[in-house]
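Let's practice the habit of predicting before peeking. Look at the sequence and jot down your guess about where helices and strands might fall. Then scroll down.
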Amino acid sequence: MLQKPNPIDSEIHVLNNASIMVKTDRTGTIEYANLEYTNLSEYEVDEIIGQDVSILAHPDMPETVFNHIWESLFKKQRTYAILKNISKSGKYFWLQVNFDFKVNEETREIESIYAYYSKASNVAKVELGAIYKKIKSIEEFSGMEVAENYLNGFLDEKGIKYHNLIEKYLTNTNS
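Done guessing? Here is the structure:
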């Protein structure tokens, strides 16, 4: 099992035309990562295949966000996210993600999850970074349930669902 690296405050910049993909099983175990993803993450393919995808999540990312992603996927809803990831060296990089899945025709259960990544906008990094920081702080001091309640209240105030919040940032990846 890989050890999660210690974060350092240095960003890896993602190219505008990057075509990045990771495939996991239904539990999040990495089954495939393309060359662009392994180059970006600084891991060799053989290091991350078989690892839980959470090894790539930056410690700044709140679990509450991942809970929303998994909840949508297990409802068999395509979903989007903007995530801060951590590389093998501890550097960070932001990606916007389009999640899709393959359903087993016999069991009707999700058997594979596909994450298609591209560059996250600077606006998304700043604005969502601030929201994620607040949620992460609440998770650490008050627990997951309180953080979930905070996020739901934040979304209620804006009159939107989590996926609507993320979709707001998906159109402009060149800023």
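How did you do? The two ends are 37 Å apart (CA to CA).
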